[in-house]
Amino acid sequence: MNDSLAETGLKFFGTVSASISHEIKNRMAVVNEQAGLLKDLVKIAEQGGEVPLERLLRLAESLKTQVDLTDGIIKNMNRFAHSVDSFQCESDLCEVLELTARLAGRIAENRGVRIELQIGESSPRIVTAPFLLMNLIWLCLEATIPFADMESPVVMGCEKSKGGADIWFKVNRWPETGGPALPEKVGPLRNMLNAGVALYPDEKKLSIELQQKPGTE
User: Fold this and answer.
1) Half-sphere exposure in the Cβ direction for 22 (13 Å, CA)
2) In a designed cystine with 167, which of 3, 94, 187, 208 is the match (CB 3.0 to 4.6 A)?
3) What pTM does this model have?
4) Does 6 have pLDDT greater than 90?
5) How far is CA 44 from CA 14, 35, 38, 49, 158, in A?
């Protein structure tokens, strides 16, 4: 792996990790606030005041919601961390795409953009490097996000192709210059993954085109 690819991968890992830590911190801040409220209610009860059971129930449900949300964030973080376990393995592309979308969700929302997935019942499976593929998906997302918003989201999906599988990104406000500007660091990732990255202006689509290795179908 060359220095450029390593730098790109480290930056990607750092960006995702920072975003996850912010999400967890935000959830813990809500839990801390609700724990303080619970403490206040206990003091009221200790002083002989009446604490409605419905209020305690709502608070308990809210705390459970925050715990469930935090658990989901940590599970995504765990799956992301394990994406470097193997740089060549058979991967479910829809699962890879879905995880990347979840990891990018907070960053997209902060930019006023919504990500929408179109996942079919069957998912293509292909031998690839999951971490590098997620990095490439992330870069393609970054290229298309400037042309989307909450009303016109970035729509992502994957499908089988003749030689392997495609992962695609569609935006309604397709740029007039012919397509989203892809950063130079897409090149090394594309080469490592033996993938093509193509623009289809008529379909308002950007596509990652992956080739199935012989004997792996």
Assistant:
1) 12
2) 208
3) 0.87
4) no
5) 45, 14, 10, 5, 56
